[in-house]
């Protein structure tokens, strides 16, 4: 069958005009589609931000996060090197604006934890939201292992994608003896697993202290702030981590992370040079990388349960959800359910003046809060064990039962002429 270029050339000849032969242009395009080698090197430098969010989602589920090899890993390795050497962080910045409020102190903190922002985002999308505010209470499961994510469908999707990539990479070797595609795929997969398995990923993701059991449970409100229609109230038991610490984004940098980032970046560049010199089997490698990019995109944006994010909550009951027609009514109902919850969110949702009846209600709640804090301090001091070393030692007795100090201490006189001390006289009044 004649090609399109030859048909166009024949048509021009029939018309008696001499036109340039378009055959070379069509031949170049046909060669490009037959073996798209040039596009591989271009694809290797895009999509680094997607890879970073995918690793952040799956880090901590296993020693190695199952994030498949894709074309964005080289771009990510360069950005990870810059971040590790500079600010020393691996996790991305939070992509969901979140405020964390301590219900006991009322302190409002801007969230700096990526995983805490995702926790609010995923629960807010799954919660029915109307025009008013919905407050849902969550209680942590004692002894469930805070900061230990469960393996959900996103995790196993990554494992299956890696297995499918290896199967695809075997085909050109089995059919035509070209094992370079398999070598590149295995090398990229190993580099991806090592990059996602750095210990700093998990340490940075769950950088928080345990809840102090001596102070009781930690009660924290998580919301996007004024204008939002959803708020989470997390009541953490002493076996859980402090969400207020987690929201601070604590620094967990390691010297080994910077060294590994340099090494991995060099190895990714070596892999790029290997791909650039690849001859044949390009479509197989495109299929491998394309499948990896799909898995990375799914993992980066997927909605996950709280357990998959590392937060283990008890089953939410119907009475744990507070929703009324008015925001003020919702805050009052939340305050009655858990003291301090509505009071700490009141300045956030109502920064202006209140109505007289509302002001009277919240003034009374403030007085009750102060009374509770004083009572807690009193109980704390009463329960504090006494320090045996803090008690004063009994002072030596300086008087006898029958006289003063002169009756019991021998009298000693000083002779100025001889500069000698006279011997003590006998005690006239001994102890009874």
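-> sequence recovered:
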């Amino acid at each position: 069958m004649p090609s399109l270029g030859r048909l166009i050339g024949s048509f021009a000849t029939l018309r008696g005009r001499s036109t340039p032969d378009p055959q070379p242009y069509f031949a170049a395009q046909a060669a490009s589609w037959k073996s798209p080698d040039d596009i591989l090197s271009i694809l290797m430098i895009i999509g680094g931000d997607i890879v970073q969010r995918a690793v952040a989602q799956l880090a901590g589920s296993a020693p190695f996060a199952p994030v498949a090899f894709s074309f964005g890993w080289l771009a990510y390795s360069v950005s990870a090197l810059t971040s590790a050497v500079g600010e020393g962080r691996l996790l991305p910045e939070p992509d969901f604006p979140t405020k964390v409020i301590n219900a006991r102190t009322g302190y409002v903190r801007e969230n700096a934890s990526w995983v805490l922002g995702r926790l609010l985002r995923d629960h807010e999308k799954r919660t029915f939201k109307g025009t008013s505010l919905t407050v849902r209470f969550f209680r942590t499961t004692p002894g469930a292992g805070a900061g230990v994510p469960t393996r959900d469908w996103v995790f196993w999707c990554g494992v299956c994608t890696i297995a499918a990539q290896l199967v695809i990479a075997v085909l050109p070797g089995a059919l035509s003896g070209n094992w370079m595609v398999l070598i590149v795929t295995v090398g990229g997969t190993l580099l991806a697993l090592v990059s996602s398995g750095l210990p700093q990923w998990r340490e940075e993701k769950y950088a928080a202290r345990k809840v102090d059991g001596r102070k009781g449970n930690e009660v924290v409100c998580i919301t996007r702030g004024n204008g939002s229609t959803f708020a989470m109230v997390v009541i953490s038991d002493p076996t859980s981590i402090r969400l207020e610490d987690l929201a601070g984004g604590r620094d967990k940098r390691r010297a080994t992370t910077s060294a590994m980032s340099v090494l991995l970046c060099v190895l990714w560049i070596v892999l790029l040079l290997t791909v650039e010199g690849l001859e044949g089997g390009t479509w197989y490698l495109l299929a491998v990388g394309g499948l990896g990019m799909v898995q990375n995109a799914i993992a980066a944006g997927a909605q996950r349960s709280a357990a998959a994010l590392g937060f283990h909550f008890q089953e939410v009951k119907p009475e744990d959800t507070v929703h009324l027609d008015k925001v003020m009514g919702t805050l009052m109902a939340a305050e009655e359910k858990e003291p301090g919850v509505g009071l700490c969110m009141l300045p956030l949702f109502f920064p202006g003046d209140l109505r007289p009846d509302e002001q009277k209600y919240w003034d009374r709640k403030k007085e009750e809060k102060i009374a509770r804090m004083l009572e807690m301090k009193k109980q704390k001091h009463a329960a504090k064990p006494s320090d045996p070393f803090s008690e004063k030692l009994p002072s030596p007795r300086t008087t006898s039962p029958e006289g003063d100090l002169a009756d019991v201490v021998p009298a000693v006189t000083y002779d100025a002429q001889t500069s000698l001390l006279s011997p003590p006289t006998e005690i006239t009044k001994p102890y009874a």
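The radius of gyration is 37 Å.
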